[in-house]
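Write out structure tokens for Heme oxygenase.
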Amino acid sequence: MRERTKALHVTAERTGIVAELLRGRGTVQSYALLLRSLLPVYEALEAELERHAASPVTGLIVRPELHRSAALRADLAQLDATDLPLLPEAIVYLNAIREAGSGSGHPLLAHAYTRYLGDLSGGQIIKKILARTLALPPEALSFYEFPEISDIPRFKDDYRVALEQAGAAMAEHDAVIEEAAIAFQLNITLSQALQQAAGLAG
């Protein structure tokens, strides 16, 4: 999945609201819009993963300590942004995750890989930038906090191993790799839509 999505990963960091935040050009409103859009995405992902927790394949990567839904709700409440509109691109994204969870649920591996490893890696960089450029308190940045994970680098290594084991245990390996590319593209499209909605495009 890493090789297939390498170019898309670069694009994701260089476009849309994510690029604005990384460059220190975001606003509290644009950050809140991002959280609002991600909440139903994570709710869908975590519900589908839990539904397949007993699977000998998908179950290998179900880790409740990664769940972000509660943290997203807390951050939105802290920012007084719980009533922000949901962009159509976010709905497309969550529907794609629900579709990935149908049947065997194996394509969920691609979405977990894209979101959770991103949160554990680039998300930690964004957290520091947001704290500095938007003067956000820790209470508004819990999305990037993983209190149940004491050693993030080691956890990431273990999670990659679990993903590899899950990949080796399924037949539709190529399809899941392509699902990772779809997941990155969904993120890019949402990020670009959020940039425009926040008035930061151009």
